[in-house]
Design goal:
Layout lengths: L1 E5 L4 H10 L6 E6 L13 E4 L5 H11 L3 E4 L8 H22 L4 E5 L24 H20 L2 E7 L1 E3 L8 H13 L6 E2 L6 E2 L1 E3 H12 L4 H4 L4 E4 L5 E2 H12 L5 E2 L17 H7 L7 H15 L3
Helix pairs in contact: 1-6, 2-3, 3-4, 5-8, 5-10, 8-10
Amino acid sequence: MRVLVTGASGFTGNALIRFLIQNEDVEIIGITRGTNPRPIPNTSIRWITADLLDRDHLGEIVSSVLPDAVIHLAGLNHGTPADLFTTNICGTQNILEATARANPESRILVTSSSAVYGYQGTSPITEASPFMPRTEYGVAKAAMEVLARMHHRVRGCRVAILRPFNLVGPGQTGAFICGKIVRQIVEIEKGKREVIELLETQSSRDFIDVRDLVRAYWALISHPSFSEGCAGNVFNIGSGRSCAITGVITTLEKITGKTYQVRLPSVPQRISIPSQQSDNTRISSVTGWTPQISLEKTLRDMIAAELVRTSG
């Protein structure tokens, strides 16, 4: 299978490619906007630098690759509303259009986000839950989903949509809550700071290890009945458990054997999404996929990776 991965040098893209290179029957082509993708220990990967907003260039690339499958990871999760809407919606339009032109039989996975749900209460969230985004990012991803469904329904694209919940894993940056906490704890261990500084600690999230996530991508894209069982559907990808930020800190204290002081703003932070928890019934019933990595193991691996990163 020839697999084209957009956003291949990002956090999820890096984990996905490391997973895919274990399969000798997969030919990997990675699209990245930058010129310096993360180092991958495999020389057979073909890297292509491209901007998904350059419609003509992207069309040429996809026509030359003729992918059997496209895993669309590229997008923005931070930025101005104009950047979020343009990148997530127009970039997705361009990759869907180019793929349909080059190989109408190609399988396509489009990455959305649990941000489209917003806050739905404390019960596990199913794919039937309505769009209730509370950020511009969530709105952009909801619009992207409508676009992808249109391509499937009207233009016959074999596209499935994934809604990952909160990602965690080794190498995650400080732009995400667990990455931020882990980096600060390592700084405390190295004597570079004294306390963990956060905006709030009361919200709860469904944290899914990126290594479990990429197994879900493969379970879907390689499904023997992709057209019948996957295309046109939406799939939640989460751990199926909700954990408060205080619980993350408690788990890290258990791992390190230390106790950490947390400093919060003097004015309490407004929490727009108090909690989220994924219902994974659909993907489990279709593919048999279930999450395997506990949050404790994830956090242990994140600390180890951060210590290696900062060892110089």
